[in-house]
Amino acid sequence: MARLTMAQALVRWLCAQMTEIEGQRVPLFAGVFGIFGHGNVTCLSEALEAVQDQLPTWRGQNEQSMALAAIGFAKAKRRRQIMVATSSIGPGALNMVTAAGTAHANRLPLLLIAGDTFTNRLPDPVLQQVEHYNDPTITVNDAFKAVTRYWDRITHPAQLLQSLPQAVGAMLDPADCGPAFIALPQDIQEIAFDYPEAFFEPRVWRIPRPRPDRDALAEAAALLKTAKKPLIISGGGVRYSGAEEALRAFAVKRGIPVVETIAGKGGLTHDDAAHCGPIGIIGSTSANALAEEADVILALGTRLQDFTTGSWTAFAQDARFIAINAARFDALKHRALPVVCDALEGLTELDAALGDWRVEHLARGKALFAEWNALLDSHQAPTNAPVPTYAQVVNVVNAFAAPNDTLIAAAGGIPGEVAKGWRVKSPNTFDLEFGFSCMGYEIAAGWGCAMAQEGPGSLGGTPIVMLGDGTYMMMNSDIYSTVLSGHKMIVVVCDNGGYAVISRLQQFKGVPGFNNLLQDCRITDKANPLHVDFAAHAASMGALSRKVESLADLAEALDWARGNDRTTVIAITTDAYSWVPGDADWDVGVPEVSNRESVQKAREAQIAIRAKQRIGV
Fold first, then answer.
1. Which of 172, 215, 409, 429 yields a CA-CA distance of 20 to 30 A from 446?
2. Is 18 contained in some domain?
3. Can you give the pLDDT at residue 616?
4. pLDDT digits (tens, 9 = 90+) for 317-335
5. Which pTM value belongs to this model?
6. Same domain for 92 and 201?
């Protein structure tokens, strides 16, 4: 038996968990992001300090950004390794709720550990405790129940024996993958307990690959054989199952074009023989045209978010769906024929079931994709305009990026421009967090991604973070974290004077510009709103930085950044009104009654969009 405090036992168990990546055994938990307070500093930090050479602890600047960094790490590792984020009780814990939602929406593993109040309640109310008059068992940590796949509060040291394996099982389950949360009451962390030594024996965890039901597979093969204009939608599940090569071979062999979701983008390279562009609201004209004419759609590893389906307006009413997905919940969406299994296993067995069947539809997809590339070229080409567009900036950064560099973006106007305009050079070098569209993800995720560029399966490149001025203002402190820890990234800040893309939506739906662009906000000088000097701000945190005005200066600054020994931030003013076309429809709320003629017209247009929607039964 090993007599340990609950906190010591938890940490020792984390250290004993292993996984395999490309045949090499590595720790399942690669490290801990921690901000210590009274809820986790006296016991949990004591345990972590003792193993810091085995399980490194990194100090963040904000609890939310620490957990977002852990998500960026998990994405870069394709869910095969996990980071931990720990906070004290109260506001520190609640700061991580947004990150938990991000991991939950994106189906990504993340272990969250927060301090909690005393189970004996003798000191109540303690510092940072939120009291509920009718239920003293509730603490702020109950808020995590809505955004986690596994939740527990350890009220006795022995509970770790059952809880920890279940938490890992949930985080590694391809169908139920998501964040796990464990609350550690302060008085329970300190208690010693005799744990069996067997609990700490090294264990190697492997992500299961469920195979498809034979009858469901046969039905899927029969349906696909009826297709004249089939389409494959490749989602994030393709990347996480390692099915990229199998998908490429399947699509070329069967003559089916492949389009990608936001999470799936990067599974294939831009110039791959089967690739025909990104689909949906921030997609390409090629993919959306293929979706409109498709009679059978093979949805592979995608949860069919509204940005993929154009709020379910992108497909014909009589189109049939086959959904290969590890999650039953996703496989059953929108009258799909569900094939519940791992993407790689399902695709492999579907290929075998199809015999020599083939269609000649890929050529149609590549022709449409060529037209899309020409349109993209026209929008990305330099002009004599005094202010560059997002599309032009994306093109310059894309041309600079090495094949093993990873592009990271999340919210605002950048996602649409990189989803459409970033031409992926190597598989799995594109991270666009648009499952939750979490503003503030970008820089934090860049830190996590930089950490992931080590060990088996790593690409070894430099994270390139692209974000707007609004997102930079929301969360930028991990620039400082990367300088302290020595994890380099390159950050490109596009300053278009506020929340430009949401202002675009606002005005497109008939509302005058209001409270989004700085010039439309309640400020003292609307004619000359103050613009932050992002380069100077980043320099104050120890980063190297430059402010540039032209595309040529941007290219030169990027070359300079490549040779720098630390995180480098480049700020450039960009146009707030120019966007690459190609979008599908989107269902949003528009006032049913308004005195504005512009809103009335937008309402009529929205009704027309809803008339095109497939009924999700």
1. 172
2. yes
3. 62
4. 999 999 999 999 999 998 8
5. 0.97
6. yes
